[in-house]
Amino acid sequence: MASVTPTTNVQYMKDRDRRQGIFLSLPAVVWLGIFFMLPVLIVLAISFLTPTTDGAGGQLPLTLNHYADAFDFWKPRPIYSAVILRSVWISLLTTIICLLLGYPLSFFIATRKSQAFRQFAMFLIIMPFWTNFLVRTYALKTIIAPEGPLASILTTLGGLGILQDGKLNWLNTREAVILGLVYSYLPFMVLPIYAVVEKFDFRFVEAANDLGANDLKTFFRVVVPMTAPGLVAGFILVFIPTIGAFVTPDLLGGTQGLMISNLIQQNIRGSGANYPRGSALSAVLMILVTVGVIIYLRYGSRETAR
Asked: How many domains does the chain fold into?
């Protein structure tokens, strides 16, 4: 009779755990396959088709013209590539502003000695999520309307050089879109940074100062690298949803704040519907989002390992 060695037992347990893991993950894999991967594959397939007469579908032959339209840099007056670049720029600028606001705010909250104060501050940051995103965007639109509450306050203060003919002309601009995105997504920057800063050991700062490093060098050589996982997570959590934002640019930006999601909507439901072109633009958006995720998986995991 063959003897069972400890190594055999360990290998058997590993194989059993692996089979159990596959079995437990199967429902999630099936769910993602049906409701995520299958629609993505359908969109990719449609993006290579020729639009039908009414534009509400695709037909053979296959073509790459829609991707050529999406990357129309070579044209004298590019349309789609200009909107894509604008979307990346608005999203990147929004993320940087959220970082500049959220990083010191996270430190301010995390370094308070009073636990009640920290809990109350985090409650205030999370509280906007209790209200529907669309309602919050409409509320901001009302506040910055040409004759809205903010315009009334500025009028009382003498205009401060912001008003034009007694009105606040912020709506239907890129700046209004950035303001709305920062207002909506700032908590997504604060929360991951706060989670890292709360566990930060400030004795490292004291050690750096004892070794002769000034405050600026200590910040960039000690504080930033040790809080990098929170920075990377916050950057991705803001950049990815803002680059695909639809409601905020639609309500606050007008034609000046048009982003790629609005362009996709126009090609799917607009008067000049073109499903294959809209699908190609959707594929471009997915590529941009995937690049952001890859950066996070590569850089964020490396920083966490440190």
From this structure: 1
